[in-house]
Write a structure and sequence with these properties.
Strand order of the largest sheet: 1-2-3-4-5-6
Oligomer: single chain
Number of strands: 8
Largest sheet: 6 strands, mixed
Structural class: alpha/beta
Bound molecules: iron/sulfur cluster
Radius of gyration: 16 Å
Strand content: 15-25%
Distance between the termini: 34 Å
Length: 198
């Protein structure tokens, strides 16, 4: 699995305190994407078990984990194994993803992924992944359609809730989070484009 970066504790990517895994690789090329460094499918391969272990190690302090990117569904098989491993070890951890694919695209298997070529198989893969999710934010980022919808950077995107773990009121209005690490790295996550005219 190609991983761009990992944030151990964020409050801007879903309910409560969450780890965030940014996968590496996305071919959707949304105009105005503010994370273009995640687009190339490059970097060191990690096994899904390795990725899951990183989350599991810090899980006792967390409400959940969110997978973002990059495009998590373009590494769908690895994502599924990662989710299965996390759920088996820490069933109480909430799990969410961002995907640039829309609900109809995912349901029909109309998405690209590195591991599966067959559309029927891809549709089944999404069904399996969905069974491990508490929520997902779905759809392309469309430049020039900002709003104040929780977790969504353009108003066409949909927040889908798949379990009883969360309700709509658990999702906070958009916010920006800035983390300054001891090595001087400044990491910005959340929705820094809100309020900036397109
Ligand atoms: S799906 Fe996400 S990461 Fe990919 S281009 Fe669109 S906004 Fe960027």
């Amino acid at each position: 699995m190609l991983i761009h970066s990992f944030v151990p504790d964020s409050r801007a990517n879903g309910p409560g305190l969450r780890a965030v895994v940014y996968v590496q690789g996305c071919s959707l090329n949304c105009r105005g994407c503010w994370n273009p460094g995640t687009h190339a499918f490059v970097g060191k391969e990690r096994s899904p078990e390795q990725v899951a272990r990183t989350i599991i190690a810090g899980a006792s302090a967390l409400d959940g984990v969110t997978f973002s990117g990059g495009e998590p569904m373009q590494q769908a098989h690895d994502l599924l194994v990662t989710l299965q491993t996390i759920r088996a070890a820490v069933p109480d951890l909430g799990i969410g993803i961002y995907s640039g694919y829309s609900p109809p695209e995912l349901a029909a298997g109309r998405f690209q992924t590195r591991q599966f070529a067959d559309q029927t198989e891809r549709a089944r893969l999404w069904q399996e992944i969905q069974s491990y999710l508490d929520f997902a934010v779905l759809g392309r980022y469309v430049e020039g359609r900002p709003g104040d919808l929780p977790l969504r950077s353009s108003t066409n995107q949909e927040l889908r809730i798949f379990s009883s773990r969360y309700s709509a009121t658990d999702f906070a209005p958009l916010e920006i989070e800035v983390q300054i690490w001891s090595d001087g790295l400044v990491q910005i996550t959340g929705f820094p484009l809100l309020g900036i005219p397109a």
